[in-house]
Design goal:
Elements: H1 9-20, H2 38-50, H3 55-64, H4 66-72, E1 74-78, E2 83-86
Antiparallel strand pairs: 1-2
Helix pairs in contact: 3-4
Length: 90
C-alpha cells in the first residue's frame, strides 16, 4: 500500500490482520520497505507465507482464489519492459 507517511497504513494493515480470521481469511503482515529488488521482495513474501502457522491453508486458498487462478496462467514475466504473457484458462 502506497501513501504518504503518517496516514495510518500500518494501523490499517494490522487491523485487517487482527480481524482476518473471524472473516474466514488468513493474514500475514510483512514490511518490505527494505527489499532492494523485485526478487528480494518476492523472497520475503514467500518466506512470510510459507511459515508453518497455517501455511498449507494459505497456499490452498490462494490457489483456489481468482488471483491464484490468474497467477497459474502466467507463462512469462519480463520486469523492466513490463511484459506479461498468459496462456488459456485452466
Amino acid at each position: 500500500m502506497l501513501a504518504p507517511r503518517r496516514v495510518g497504513k500500518t494501523s490499517l494493515m494490522l487491523r485487517l490482520q487482527a480481524t482476518a480470521t473471524e472473516k474466514g481469511f488468513s493474514a500475514v503482515y510483512l514490511s518490505v520497505a527494505d527489499a532492494a529488488s523485485e526478487i528480494n521482495f518476492v523472497k520475503k513474501v514467500f518466506r512470510a507465507v510459507a511459515e508453518p502457522s497455517g501455511s498449507e491453508n494459505v497456499f490452498k486458498r490462494l490457489r483456489r482464489s481468482p488471483a491464484g487462478k490468474l497467477l497459474g496462467r502466467i507463462r512469462r514475466v519480463e520486469v523492466l519492459s513490463v511484459d506479461l504473457e498468459l496462456f488459456g484458462p485452466r
